[in-house]
Amino acid sequence: MNNEMSRSELISGVSIQCGISRQEAESILNSIFRNISNSLNGGKDVKIKSFGEFKPRAVLNGIERTDRTEFKPAKKLNSKINKLYEYLSPSRKIYDK
Predict the structure, then answer these.
(1) What dihedral do alpha carbons 26, 27, 30, 32 form, nearest 10°?
(2) Which residues of 66-82 are buried (b: 16+ CB within 10 A; e: fewer)?
(3) Which of 23, 50, 61, 78 could form an S-S bond across to 73 if both were Cys, CB 3.0 to 4.6 Å?
């Protein structure tokens, strides 16, 4: 079982749920991803209500700097994820606070 959603599957899902063409869905998703990426590259946090927060971080490893992005799920999303994992495996939660 594959636990990953591909870009193509995401585009198809948006297309079906919104009743738009795959090309329109792809264009919308590209715009969203581009805006998130541009904000993070500019050092800005990106908060999406009921989903979560992306934060750009620079991590110093000795003399090197590595840029990373942290993701903190919103409480609502966190709760949904944990309910799914409790159902699948009662002892496993992926986002404990």
Answers:
(1) -110
(2) eeeeeeebeeeebeeeb
(3) 78
The one-letter amino acid at 81: I
Question: Which residue bears the tokens 């590259």?
Answer: 41
Contact 27, 19 (CB under 8 A): no
**11: number of Cβ within 10 Å:** 19
Strand partners, 52: 48, 73
Residues sharing a CB contact under 8 Å with residue 77, sequence separation 6 or more, in sequence order: 50, 51, 52
pTM given for the model = 0.72
Sign of the C-alpha dihedral computed for residues 50, 47, 83 and 13 taken in this order? positive
Consecutive 10-residue runs of the chain (97 residues): their mean pLDDT?
85 96 97 95 93 88 79 90 74 54
In terms of Cβ atoms closer than 10 Å to its own Cβ (0-12, 13-18, 19+), residue 56 is: middle
